[in-house]
Amino acid sequence: MSFLLFVVAILGIVVFAVIVNRLTGTRYLYLHELQFAPGEKELWRDAAADFYPVQRLGRAMLMSYSRLKRHTVVWTDRRIVVAQKILFSPKRAVTHQVYFASGMAGIDENKAASELFGGFYGRGFHTIIAETHACGVVNDKACVRIRPTESCGAAQNIDELLVFSDHTAELERSLAPRQLAAGARPVFSYHARSPRATIDKPQTTANTPWPNTFTPCAA
């Protein structure tokens, strides 16, 4: 009887999701169908990455970010596109698009980023406006740490975005010609169970979650 109730509950959730998607016009945007904007160039791609949005409120005290290699992350000179493999299908659906600075996003993207669900309903993926990034290590795993703008983070309850990859060095080389600020970029290392992260700069250590200055990830 319990199993039957479980199956009925799952079917109810599926039916509810289908109805909501039909009413809002929400559908999958597959990665292979994604169109780049005129002049947009792909800088880096990892088909075995992991992407984790970190909540501002309501997150667990201890976080463990497993390396399941289930996401494809495409980094262009305008945005980051995150796609995830669909269950029982070889296709990958876009789940997030991240733009650095609102000027790189269009009117629709800026509007979606200001909404609670990042424009998911009606578009099929979350849109986020970010302001900075840094490469380093989280829980002893190579990671890119991305901070959303204050307004976007507050609207969507996002503290930061983490992209785990075995090829962050290649990403840094791809982005190097586009860095705007001079000098070494901040490198961080911390464990998610720590109440405060530690950012290690060359020769110095700051006890703040983020360094005061960043080099933008795209020109």
Stretches where pLDDT is under 50 for at least 5 consecutive residues are: 180-185, 194-208, 210-219
CATH topology: PH-domain like
CA(first)-CA(last) distance = 59 Å
What is the string of SSEs from the N terminus onward?
Answer: HEEEEHHEEHEHEEE
Order of neighbouring strands in the sheet with most strands = 1-2-3-4-5-6-7
Helix content: 10-25%
Contiguous helical run count? 5
Q: Could you say which overall geometry the principal axes of the C-alpha atoms support?
A: globular
Q: Which CATH architecture? A: Roll
Strand content: 25-35%
How is the main sheet built?
7 strands, mixed, barrel
What is the top-level CATH class? Mainly Beta
Gyration radius, rounded: 18 Å
Helix/strand structural class: alpha+beta
Q: Could you give the count of β-strands?
A: 10
Number of individual domains: 1
Mean pLDDT: 76
Indicate the topology.
Elements: H1 2-24, E1 42-55, E2 71-76, E3 79-85, E4 92-100, H2 107-113, H3 120-123, E5 126-138, E6 141-148, H4 150-156, E7 158-164, H5 168-175, E8 187-190, E9 199-201, E10 204-206
Parallel strand pairs: 4-5, 5-8
Antiparallel strand pairs: 1-2, 1-7, 2-3, 3-4, 5-6, 6-7, 8-9, 9-10
Q: Mind explaining what this structure looks like?
A:
This protein is an alpha+beta fold and 219 residues long. It has a single domain (28-206), classed as PH-domain like (Roll). It is built from five helices and ten strands; from the N terminus they run αββββααββαβαβββ. A seven-stranded mixed β-barrel has the order 1-2-3-4-5-6-7. Residues 180-185, 194-208 and 210-219 have low confidence and may be disordered.
